[in-house]
Design a protein that fits this description.
Blueprint: H1 2-6, E1 9-12, H2 19-30, E2 36-42, H3 67-70, H4 80-93, E3 96-102, E4 104-106, H5 120-130, E5 134-136, E6 142-147, H6 148-163, E7 177-179, E8 183-186, H7 187-200, E9 210-212
Parallel strand pairs: 1-2, 2-3, 3-7, 4-6, 5-9
Antiparallel strand pairs: 6-8
Pfam family, one: Epimerase
GO molecular function: aldehyde dehydrogenase (NAD+) activity
InterPro entries: Epimerase_deHydtase, NAD(P)-bd_dom_sf, NAD(P)-dependent_oxidoreduct
Length: about 220
Amino acid sequence: DGQGEAADVVVQVANSDDEAMSLALLEGVAKHAGAAYVHVSGIATLIDQNFPLGQLDTRVYSDATQTAEILSLSHGHLHAAIEQKIVEQSEALQTKLAIVSLPVMYGEGRGRMTPQSKVFQPYVRAVLSHGKPFVVGDGQNIRSHAHVSDASSALLLMVDEALKGELSKGKWGRDGYYFVETGESSFMDDAKETAEVLQARGLVRSSEIDSLNKDTA
């Protein structure tokens, strides 16, 4: 927790599901008067693992009015358990906390560790291996997305707000849950755009979209 104690603001971007590291950083921040902890999570928290693959889930979550519901999701939801644990611990430690939930990322990052998207690039590689673009099921499931530069700007905004102290207009604690997105698209939309680009470059022969099931995806 020494690193957390030394900083005015800590942004945990390393691994959103590393509970030991996250709690250690939070405990360090708690020792620094007026410091804030920003935990970076992801919208996979909202995915219902029991919902049919490729179907459109019409539920929409708002970070303005439904933070209580988001922070009450079952632990079967990815990231949900650690998000709830961190909120509870921040309250116990009386420490300023915000959770920033990032969407599917695209664009080339400026850092050394992860310069490419962990979603789009693996999908393109899978398409090239399969021989043609594909979706799972009907591909109607919708995902929000953002360019990596926009996501980093959102995090910098949170840092700026944290440094304002009592003058901050940001929300913290159980109300300080933020989604980041610049748009949304269905799996089918993404597959069609991928098909057009790859076919134009001669990397796939057809722009036809395959529909795979859970076992063949």
